[in-house]
Amino acid sequence: DGGITQSPKYLFRKEGQNVTLSCEQNLNHDAMYWYRQDPGQGLRLIYYSQIVNDFQKGDIAEGYSVSREKKESFPLTVTSAQKNPTAFYLCASSNPRGVGEGANVLTFGAGSRLTVL
Amino acid sequence: AQSVTQPDIHITVSEGASLELRCNYSYGATPYLFWYVQSPGQGLQLLLKYFSGDTLVQGIKGFEAEFKRSQSSFNLRKPSVHWSDAAEYFCAVAPPSGTYKYIFGTGTRLKVLA
Question: Residue A20: pLDDT above 80?
Answer without folding.
Answer: yes
